[in-house]
Amino acid sequence: MKPILPKDEAAALVDAARIRQGLTWAELADHLGAPLVWTTAALLGQHPLGTEQADRICERLGLDEAVAESLALQPHRGSSPEVMRDPTIYRFSEALSVYGPALKALIHEEFGDGIMSAINFTVDIERRPDPDGDRVVVTFDGKFLDYRW
User: Fold this and answer.
1) Which reaction is catalysed here (predicted)?
2) pLDDT of residue 21
């Protein structure tokens, strides 16, 4: 029996097919009828696709059932230390390192004792024109979960 294709290898095949066909992540999200950031994360191995979604994306990209099988698996979420050193990703870590304590304090002040869910959660990205250089606007939208004792 042949082993299941690892999710990181499936992600690399998806990305290669996307690039070679001149497709954007937004076009693939539209093809699936799913949110852009979620779709991109799923196709990079951080969320499981439904079987039908995996089949549709593989058909669109000309990839075989081994890739679809892998895309439908539950992931091991997170990133390797190598990925975390990427400058773009590191800047998010840096921003949370600097502003995380303030955000925590403000969440507690506004909502009480609890957390923002990263499961019942959406994230979006947009470009905002600015005379000093375009701005990246990232919106995290998570349900507040109060601690219950």
Assistant:
1) cyanate + hydrogencarbonate + 3 H(+) = NH4(+) + 2 CO2
2) 98
Give the domain CATH number at 130: 3.30.1160.10
Catalytic residue chosen out of the listed positions 59, 65, 94, 126: 94
Structure tokens at 59: 């058909």
52, 59, 117, 135: the catalytic one is: 117
pLDDT in tens, 74-125: 998 887 888 888 999 899 999 999 999 899 999 999 999 999 999 999 999 9
pLDDT (0 to 100) of residue 62: 98
DSSP 43-80: HTTSSPPPHHHHHHHHHHHT--HHHHHHHTSPP--S--
C-alpha angle with apex 64: 60 to 69, nearest 5 degrees?
Answer: 100
E strand or H helix that includes residue 82? helix 81-84
Mean per-residue pLDDT for 31-43? 96
Told to judge if 97 belongs to the known catalytic residues of this protein, a careful annotator would answer no
Is 94 part of the annotated catalytic residue set? yes
Radius of gyration (C-alpha) of the chain in whole angstroms: 18
Q: How many domains, the chain?
A: 2
39 with 29: CB under 8 angstroms? yes
| pLDDT band for position 46 (cuts 50, 70, 90) | very high
